[in-house]
Write a structure and sequence with these properties.
Elements: H1 3-18, E1 25-29, H2 51-62, E2 66-70, H3 76-85, E3 92-94, E4 102-104, H4 117-130
Parallel strand pairs: 1-2, 1-4, 2-3
């Protein structure tokens, strides 16, 4: 992790814990939410923009949310350049999970307090069978 990225993450965590109502962070997954995923991962290759994902990103920013882009990719600088090319320069791009009010991800299952292991396993099996 780059020093600047580490300092931004640390600052976000500190501000978030001190001012939870004012500091509203939304973590947005990159591949599958903002960019299409087409086939297996290939270094340096990013899919086409997902218009609804970019629209949502713009709406979040316009509403005053602090947005962090999460990616499993090591090349966060490539993702940041792609975002800048789409009209979103200067966003924090990280491959480290950070404190957030909401995580937007195309591959997530929501685990609630009353979620049973059986029902979650059924959902996981359903997803695996669809691939």
């Amino acid at each position: 992790m780059k020093l600047a990225e580490a300092l931004l993450l640390q600052a976000a965590a500190e501000v978030s814990s001190q001012h939870p109502a004012r500091f509203r962070t939304v973590a947005v997954d990159f591949d599958g939410v903002l960019a299409h995923v087409s086939g297996p991962f290939q270094y340096g290759r990013i899919g086409a923009p997902r218009p609804e994902g970019l629209k949502l990103l713009r709406m979040l920013i316009e509403e005053g949310f602090h947005v962090a882009i999460l990616t499993a990719r090591k090349e966060t600088d490539l993702v940041a350049k792609w975002l800048a090319d789409q009209g979103f320069p200067g966003l924090l791009v990280t491959n480290t999970k950070m404190p957030a009010l909401v995580y937007l991800d195309d591959r997530a299952l929501r685990v609630l307090e009353h979620s049973s292991a059986d029902s979650l396993m059924q959902k996981i099996i359903k997803v695996v069978r669809q691939e």
